[in-house]
Amino acid sequence: MQQNNSTTEFILLGLTQDPMKKKMVFVIFFIFYLGTVVGNLLIVVTIKTSRTLGSPMYYFLFYLSLADSCFSTSTAPRLIVDSLSAKNIITYNECMTQVFALHFFGCMEVLVLILMAFDRYVAICKPLHYPTIMSRRVCTILIVLAWIGSFIHSIAQIILALRLPFCGPSLIDHYCCDLQPLLKLACMDTYVINLLLVSNSGAICSSSFVILMISYIVILHSLRNHSAEGRKKALSTCTSHIIVVIIFFGPCIFIYTRPPTTFPMDKMVAVFYTIGTPFLNPLIYTLRNAEVKNAMKKLWHIKITSESRR
C-alpha cells in the first residue's frame, strides 16, 4: 500500500496506560472476544448443519454471525495483545488495513440487519407472496449486493485515509485505527474530509437506523391482524431484531454523525459497538429463539451420540 507522507508507524494509546488496568483489560476483553467467536461460530455451524433452519431469516442470521465474528476480530485481538505490551506500535499499512476491515464488516452488519428487517416485513405483511419474493436465488443476490456495498463503502474510507498527510506526533488516542482519531494527527485542514466522513459513514448509520425503525413500526402495526399465537411468535422475533438495531446503531450514530470533537467516552462507546454488540448478538438470537436453541440441542446430541459410539 502506497503511503503519501513520512509517517511509517503509529502508537496506539489504548484504553488505559495504567499497568494494573491493562491487565484487567486483557482479561475482560479476552473473555468477551472468546465468547464472541465461540457464540457466533456456534450459530454459523448450527444454521449450516440444521435442516430446520433453512428459511431466509436464518440464512441472513448466518451472515450476520459471520460478519460479527470478523467485525470483532478487526479490533479485539489488537486490543488484547496491546494490553500486555509496553509500547503499542502499529505500522501505517496495518493501520490502513484495520480501517478497511473495520468499515467493511461494520457496513456488512448494517446491510444484513436491513435484509433481516426486509425479510420480516415480507413474512408478516405479505405472507402469501413470501416464498416467491424471498426465494433462495433472491436472498443470494441480496447478500452478494451487501458484500459489494460493503466493499465500496470501505474503499471510500480508505481513499479518505490515504489522503491524510502525517508529519507530526504519531500518538493515536484510541485502541484501533479509524478515521476520526487519524484526522486529529493529520497536518492539514480536515474539515472537508470530516464532512465526507459524516456524509458517508454518518449518513449510512442514520439513514439505516431510520429505515429499520420505520420498517419495524410497520411490522408491529400489521401484527394486530394476526392470531394471538402468530402475533406472539412474530413479536418475539422482531423484538430481538429491534434490540440489536438499537445497541448497534446508537453508538455508531454517536461516533460518525458529529464534528471532529473529542469526548471522554468516545473509546468506550467504540468498544461497545465493535466488541460489545458482536458479543451480545449470539445471546440475543439464541436465548430468545426457540428454533435456534432446539437446533443447537440436536446438534450437540448428535455429536455426543456419535462420539459415544466410537
Features:
74% helix; single chain; mainly alpha; three-stranded mixed β-sheet; Rhopdopsin 7-helix transmembrane proteins; 310 residues
CATH A-level architecture: Up-down Bundle
**How far apart are the first and last residues' alpha carbons, in Å?**
51 Å
Q: Look at the structure and give the CATH class.
A: Mainly Alpha
State the CATH superfamily name. Rhodopsin 7-helix transmembrane proteins
Shape: globular
Biggest sheet overview: 3 strands, mixed
The secondary structure category is mainly alpha
Query: What's the rounded overall pLDDT mean?
Result: 85
The sequence of SSEs as H and E is: EHHHEHHHEHHHHH
The total beta strand count reads 3
Rg, please?
Answer: 21 Å
Q: Roughly what fraction of the amino acids lie in strands? A: under 5%
- Side by side, the strands of the main sheet go 2-1-3
CATH topology: Rhopdopsin 7-helix transmembrane proteins
Low-confidence stretches: none
> In which range does the helix fraction lie?
over 70%
Number of helices: 11
Summed up, the domain count is 1
